[in-house]
Amino acid sequence: MRKLTALMVMTGALSMLAGCNEDKPAEEVVQTVEWYKAHNTERADVLAKCQSNPGELAITPNCVNASRAQSSTTWSATGGIKAPAPLKFERK
Fold first, then answer.
1. pTM value surpassing 0.85
2. What is the largest CA-CA distance in the chain?
């Protein structure tokens, strides 16, 4: 009798857990920074979506990767950061 009760409890628990994932939205495919560099339109769409709800989306992988791709593209278009000339000290 105990085995039957335990089996029924476990079956009920598993059936409740099986339904937990149904309410969850499908996971978004995470793209890399290099992918966002190559796909300007998609990058702009993701950045617009991220800026419309920064509280929830700012730290998601796609928002971070799209933002990094945008920064990299912007800096490379302006020539990047120029290294300063080394300092020269002369002894007197």
1. no
2. 99
